[in-house]
What we know:
This protein is of the alpha/beta class. The chain contains 4 helices and 9 strands.
Amino acid sequence: MSSKTRILDASQVNQKLIRLAWQVYEHNADEQEIIIVGIAERGFVLAKKLAKYIEKISNIKTLVTQVRLDKKTPYNKEVTIGIDQQDYSDKVVIMVDDVLNSGKTLIYGAKHFLTTPLKKLSTVVLIDRNHNRYPIKADYVGLSLATTLKEYISVELSGKEQGVYLS
């Protein structure tokens, strides 16, 4: 029987998102609009919250959309995005996910954007576990955790148990 340890509560998650919003704003202050792409499902929830905070602290308009991919075997199915290519072409794209484990999800999500000219592609993760097996990193990190490979990080973004847990 495994027990869960709360690493961040809902308030701390929101505080991390506010700090991440400031960092994204500082690095993109000259932009009129940025595209924030959340990796389904929890990454999309975080992307919407991040966009709300960016718009609250700046004049940058955000367009939020979702990327869908098969997280277990992303090479078997096509990556889909909720907007047309022309909507993000020549713009700053910020890709958001909840946890960076091996980097597989982020790299296959980023691969989708490599065929389109962008101003910049950056990545945001709430939790970075530092177990990368793929050559990708998070540009903006809420919390970096040194965990063992046997430990599991779960992110709950709704209900009474909102927070980040280690089990």
